[in-house]
Amino acid sequence: MTKTEEGTVVGLIAGFYDVELTSGQRVRTRARGVFRQKKQKPAVGDHVEVQVDEKGTSYLVKILPRINRIGRPAVANVSHVLLVISAVQPDFSLQLLDRFLTFFSWQGVNVSIYLSKSDLISKEQLEKIKTDLAYYQKIGYPVFYEAQDVEKIIQTIKKGEIWTLAGQSGAGKSTLLNKLKKDANQLTGAISMSLNRGKHTTRQVQLFSLGEGFLADTPGFSSIDLTPIKLNELCNYFVEFKKASVKCKFRGCQHLKEPGCEVKLLLKEGKIKQSRYDDYLAMRTEISEGRIPEYLK
């Protein structure tokens, strides 16, 4: 006699899938051969059906419909990205911030911003960064600051949501992970030892239970490529541009030299941040030329 249960793939290890069942139990499964025939591959974050036979052996038998599948290695059903931006080492960059926000807007994923390493700069420098980030809060991106907001982040994760960390290399994603999930090092270390692979490095994706949902530990979002975005759709991924565009004179306005452009009017009035518009123009050039800027390679 077999029974079928639903669950979430929380880890992929040497061809096995670790699944957290809705009952709270975790099982290690293999995927049925039907996935190879259909050219499907389960990803961490997938909601799946697991079948347990009379011997107690578990098999992953079905992938339930996905919301999305992003990154390399991929995470499925990402509800929210926690974007880690450093104040220093590497230096705070609005240009990189806008790249990430545009990319995840294109992917249809909500983003919150977390400022790391704020204790390494002066009060004056921090106030300048906070002034910049206040604009992003105004257009709809929640902003968290180091230390005092860690518990607030955990409480923000809703039941069943999958959050993932993103940000440039060295921004402090691993440090934040260890603050959010204090046993993360022990968990990843135990997995590495069980596979006899020595010290853990983030090459695979793993989901940790956090709050009422999950947090993905993944190497997949340290750099991004915007060139697949369609040029005439780019403006839709700047949230304040999209909101303003309903008042533009022409439908499909690209906010360049068109008359009656609401975005250009708000830019002139200082209600749209100049650096955002400059980054929009730079991204248009990048997409039209079909290549990532040299400084990002």
As laid out across the biggest beta sheet, the strand order is 10-9-8-11-13-12
Which range best describes the helical content: under 10%, 10-25%, 25-40%, 40-55%, 55-70% or over 70%? 25-40%
As residue ranges, the low-confidence spans are: 186-202
Instruction: State the end-to-end CA separation.
Output: 55 Å
Number of domains: 3
- Tally of helical segments: 9
Task: Identify the CATH architecture of the largest domain.
Answer: 3-Layer(aba) Sandwich
Strand residue content: 15-25%
The CATH class of the largest domain is identified as: Alpha Beta
Here the CATH topology of the largest domain equals: Rossmann fold
Report the C-alpha radius of gyration, rounded. Answer: 21 Å
**Sheet of most strands:** 6 strands, mixed
Order of helices and strands: EEEHEEEEEHEHEHEHHEEHHH
CATH superfamily of the largest domain: P-loop containing nucleotide triphosphate hydrolases
The number of E-state strands comes to: 13
Structural class by SSE content? alpha/beta
Average pLDDT, to the nearest integer?
A: 87
Shape: globular
Pfam families: RsgA_GTPase, RsgA_N
Main location: cytoplasm
Domain CP-type G: 67-224
Keywords: Cytoplasm, GTP-binding, Hydrolase, Metal-binding, Nucleotide-binding, Ribosome biogenesis, RNA-binding, rRNA-binding, Zinc
Q: How would you portray this structure in words?
A:
The chain is an alpha/beta fold and 297 residues long. It folds into 3 domains: 3-65, OB fold (Dihydrolipoamide Acetyltransferase, E2P) (Beta Barrel); 70-217, Rossmann fold; 231-296, Probable gtpase engc, domain 3 (Ribonucleotide Reductase Protein R1, domain 1, Orthogonal Bundle), CATH 1.10.40.50. The chain is built from 9 helices and 13 strands. Helix 2 (94-107) links the parallel strand 8 and strand 9. Helix 2 crosses helix 9. The protein is globular.
